[in-house]
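Handout, section 3.2

Students often ask what a structure token actually looks like in practice. Rather than define it abstractly, here is a full record for Glycoside hydrolase family 3 C-terminal domain-containing protein. The first block is the sequence as you would receive it.
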Amino acid sequence: MNKDNLLFRNNMYSLEERLADLVGSLTLKEKISLLSTSQSAIPRLKIDKYHVGGEAAHGVVDRSGGKTTVFPQPIGLSSTWNRNLMKEVGSVIGDEARVFYQLNDKKTGLTLWAPTIDMERDPRWGRTEEAYGEDPCLTGKLSTELIKGMQGEDDFYIKMVAAPKHFYGNNNEYGRGYISNSIDPRNRREYYLKAFEPAFKEGNALSMMTAYNGVNGIPCMQINEIKEVVRNEWGMEGFIVSDGGALSLNVQEYHYYNTHAEALADALKKGIDCFVDVKELVETSANEALEKKLITENDLTKAIRNTLKVRFRLGHFDDDHSQDPYYNVDTGKMCSDEHAAVALEATKESIVLLKNDNQMLPLKEGKTKKVAVIGPTADVIYKDWYTGYSPYQITPLEGLKKKLKNAEVSFVNGNDSIAIKRVKDKSYLTISDKGNKIIANSKTIGNEETFELEEWGWNGNLLRSKANNKYVCQQDNCPTFDVNNEEVFGWFVREKIAFQPLNDNLENYHLSTWKGEPLSVSGEKLLVASEIPEVFEKRVISSGIEEAVQIAKTSDVAIVFVGNNPMLNGRETEDRPDITLPEHQQELIEAVYEANPNTIVVVIGSYPFAMNWVNQHIPAAVYSSHGSQMLGEAVASVLYGDSSPSGRLSMTWYKDVQQLPSIFDYDIINGNSTYMYFDKEVLYPFGHGLSYTTFDYSSLQLDDEVIKSGGELSVSVTVENGGNVEGSEVVQLYATVLDSSVKRPKKQLIDFAKVRLKPREKQNIILTFKTDNLAVWDVDKEEYCLEKGRCLLSIGASSEDIRLSKEINVDGSKLNSRSLSHLTKAENYNDYQNVYINKGENELNCVTSRTSGWICFRNVKFEEGSNYFRLRATTDGMPGKISIRFNDLETDSISEKDIHTEYPWQWKDFNFYFELEEQVTDVYVLFDGSISLSTIQIL
């Protein structure tokens, strides 16, 4: 073939013609070379090498340290509730991805893994910072607009490829590489999948990443929903990748397959097109799978075809680039003033005013001549693992100093300064002259022996040397410690040191490393990780709380900045143990408030906090996420009223961790999780956020009197700014399905709009929703059903602050009795206890008991002449028993049978005889022992 006359490089031909020509030109070896994210060059076809992947959660991440515009963390972006702004943010990310691509010789940068669309039904999840909250409607709409902005407006060419992740059921870090999460059909269809659907059906996202965890017994890189739902139902046209290293984890942690070849083959057939793993491992595994006939060349062809199809639309294979509007993006756009302005606006709109008693905020410059800025998050912009490197960072302290040019601004971070004495020989830890190592050989306390103690809670402590302002850190693959790190940022947090008290007066401690190893002093006087702990004494040189109190006493106002460090106690690989503020921060707030009642608390955090004391005592509280390069300017603007706060919470802020079920309980319906089902008092509700003005609602009108299946319904309302300052209101529309035959949400967000109004300005707001979004998943017919009955439409300023409501009829179907006369999947139960969904026969879902569980099928209609239940079941090898009862659990069994098989997990049919007494009844299936049930049918 003449490489200078290649059809696939001619963009005058159709995409399908070009794709067919390229795929048909590839050898088997070349196809395999395109299977991992490190895609090889093919010189004979003028194809350069290209690396798929990269991060763009809140701005492009250049791991080499290159500068990019950095926005608030996604949890912060979700607080904007602003779809138009999200599209603008996405467009900035797309532009900078193009520049990054150009600056990296066009070898990488256009296929980035964002946004994170995981449902955040539990605020303890370590990666809460990365996603868009607990609601599928809010998450779906915001992430879809971000995707549209990222991918661009052209009909063919795309700016960059968005990859929604992690599909799906991913909301715990502990055990994520080997734990399977049980998700029943209703939760699956009404909650978890709903968040992802708009990204593909409306946003046309051209990639997707699967999760590490399993769902119902199968690792997510091999679940059937990849093809059945994402491809077939949603029409996804792009390529799908596994999460980083998932191929390796499948064998090494999950133990789902014994070999990587088996794991790759199954994932390839299930819909994975590109593997995020070591190139050599992927290609070796593919060759082995071919040799063992686990896959065919056609399986490879289908996968790489999906990837190449997208690369065509990125312009990778064009000889003529004149039609590609993104071929040569102005490099001056990177970190431009225009992009910084978008980041500033996004940061302002993300800030949530949680509380504002007696209009404490906004502060007035003329009345705050002396301002105390206090706390560990006041003078730093913390990075999370997916934060890029911004060209500059404006901390809250810097923002306030810039704003208050004529005021005296004092700052104390509230941390203690300490010295650590080795009790055995009464020597202090100090810094050696060679390599800044930590040694124990000083008898006096000076600068080299003084460390600032950062207490982030749950024994997540950091030590910063007063001598060189760097952190104490255990050296890589070495037991010793040095003081050479300017910041705490790495996959492993080797700077973390735990203090285990040995007495009540908190003087003597055992110390331990980030891995929990005891600390001691070696013969060379080096501080080392060892097997035998030593006793150390902590001596407080100066109290950060006392210093904070001193400046608070003499100030007009004290602003206390608290929150979390994204590298500790809640990050990738680590869930939070609790949802309270760190103990030291709580003590700091209380002490400052006692010294000065004009105290404001500003939370800079990656997730919700249980701040009950703050809510009860502190007059004003504000929340912002981490990350943004413009954080300080935005915070100062909101605190002093240049901007009226307009952020709204995308997650419920609970009062106590005891209000939450197990982090491994993914059933939000039975578990009463999220604002949709939670039925107790919370700290701050979903959608909450105050303003410096007030908004009045009136004239609620509907464009139809009946909700009908397959249509849309518009709701209009007039909103007036009743105050004297300009502000933005987030108008939120909720639905409550009444008269349902099954448990439905107390409220369900179905649309929202953000509107900016001048003082006394009125505006008519129109909200629209697809009526089928109110459908329930009918587990009997395995389809969505819009139930006939009534629906309460509520509109207001939060899920709890409802201003107007209207009841409307629903023209739908009735979910009356159900039938078990057809073969019914056991997972399609209506109720259950002490069971989970697992992988069953032929990879179909089954229900597995936890020794003594049950499932219930409600309102079962019996046909005349029916006298048998046929259950397909198995055991783990030990004998068990199944009993069947009618109406309720307290009645006698109408039939029971011992369940045993010749060998573990052998599936067999078991017939249960019964005598019919009622035409419609509830059917309970009770398990005694470790039993799995696949199907049930009445004969």
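Discussion prompt for tutorial groups: The mean pLDDT is 96. How would you have guessed this from the sequence alone?
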